[in-house]
């Protein structure tokens, strides 16, 4: 099969022919329909993720068609179209039994701990407890985003911060996760302030429902948010994983506000200096989040299928497998609005 392989950090991916993946006894082999190119993949590409060992096939945000099912699989068969979360939980441990599959101690993460979906096919273990049917009418490019960015934003807003209608949400970073948070929060009845340093991204966010935008390169973002919201945001989303935006997100909150760390801290940002005085005096809550448990897919899919939210503004570029290297390198600087999705695995 054709795949894009990371053989050296910060080097172009090598387009290579690899052996077909073996089907796990409890899993499936998918023909990949679409795979997003995510900032988390960039962390792998730069060598910042300790789980990644070379050579390696990236790609964790994917959907596909079942080509083969293992003997222990009961829910899926050849021809089924499915979405896969990027964290494959075991479904049997105490964490999974409590509904917290994203904290499963034996989790499998294609694209990081195992070969990913920058390839024509991918082996997906633990299929019965993780996969979700891809709605017939859903664009595969959009469905791929339900493996990471959209689901992570949804779980951060609903499963962690418990965002309520009428509340103010401040989103720091208007990339894939940030734009997802905007679209979902508006569907939930919240008011949203988007923060970025790229004017084009802020214009895109404004065009798709943001109540206000703040260019952090031009003004003090927390002060601007306090003025816009009349005292600070109720909830803040940090969607970049860097110290400056995490500190600003905390300072943007009103008393008893909630901040959700969605951006992945890596490299020099693994350890951050944060304004704990604001946490203490404001009695703030800080939540970490990573992915979404598979059992929560129906709540999100019902929102989408009911027409309550249009996520199509997320998809900016449909690219070929050979374009993945350029998309990863672009994360070194400011990126344009929207996300790139690999939809052509033959070029």
TrEMBL record:
Keywords annotated in UniProt: Metal-binding, Oxidoreductase, Zinc
CDD domains from the UniProt entry: Zn_ADH6 (cd08260)
Cofactor field: Zn(2+)
Entries under SMART domains matching the protein: PKS_ER
Domain of life: Bacteria
Transmembrane segments: none
Residue stretches making up the Enoyl reductase (ER) domain: 8-342
Matches recorded under Gene3D superfamilies: Medium-chain alcohol dehydrogenases, catalytic domain (3.90.180.10)
SUPFAM superfamilies recorded: GroES-like, NAD(P)-binding Rossmann-fold domains
Family according to the record: Belongs to the zinc-containing alcohol dehydrogenase family.
Name of this chain's protein: Zinc-dependent alcohol dehydrogenase family protein
Organism of provenance: Albidovulum sediminis
């Amino acid at each position: 099969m054709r795949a894009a392989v990371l053989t050296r950090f910060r080097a172009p991916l090598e387009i290579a022919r690899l052996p077909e993946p073996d089907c796990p006894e409890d899993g499936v082999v998918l023909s990949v329909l679409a795979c997003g190119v995510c900032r988390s993949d960039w962390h792998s590409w730069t060598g910042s993720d300790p789980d990644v060992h070379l050579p390696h096939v990236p790609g964790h945000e994917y959907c596909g068609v079942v080509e083969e099912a293992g003997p222990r699989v009961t829910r899926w068969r050849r021809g089924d179209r499915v979405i896969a979360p990027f964290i494959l939980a075991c479904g049997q441990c105490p964490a999974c039994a409590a509904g917290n599959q994203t904290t499963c101690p034996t989790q499998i993460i294609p694209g990081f701990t195992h070969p990913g979906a920058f390839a024509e096919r991918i082996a997906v273990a633990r299929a019965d407890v993780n996969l979700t049917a891809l709605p017939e009418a859903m664009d595969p490019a959009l469905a791929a985003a339900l493996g990471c960015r959209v689901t992570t934003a949804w779980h951060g807003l609903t499963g962690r911060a418990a965002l309520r209608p009428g509340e103010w949400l401040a989103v720091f970073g208007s990339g894939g996760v940030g734009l997802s948070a905007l679209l979902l929060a508006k569907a939930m009845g919240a008011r949203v302030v988007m923060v970025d340093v790229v004017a084009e991204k802020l214009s895109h966010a404004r065009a798709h429902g943001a109540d206000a935008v703040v260019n952090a390169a031009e003004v003090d973002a927390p002060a601007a948010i306090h003025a816009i919201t009349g005292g600070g945001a109720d909830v803040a989303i940090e969607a970049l994983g860097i110290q400056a935006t995490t500190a600003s997100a905390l300072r943007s909150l009103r008393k008893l506000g909630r901040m959700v760390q969605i951006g992945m801290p890596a490299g020099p940002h693994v350890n951050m200096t944060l304004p704990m005085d604001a946490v203490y005096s404001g009695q703030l809550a800080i939540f970490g989040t990573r992915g979404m448990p598979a059992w929560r897919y129906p709540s999100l899919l019902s929102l989408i299928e009911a027409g309550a939210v249009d996520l199509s503004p997320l998809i900016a570029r449909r690219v070929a497998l050979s374009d993945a290297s350029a998309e990863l390198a672009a994360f070194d600087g400011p990126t344009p609005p929207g996300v790139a999705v690999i939809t052509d695995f033959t070029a």
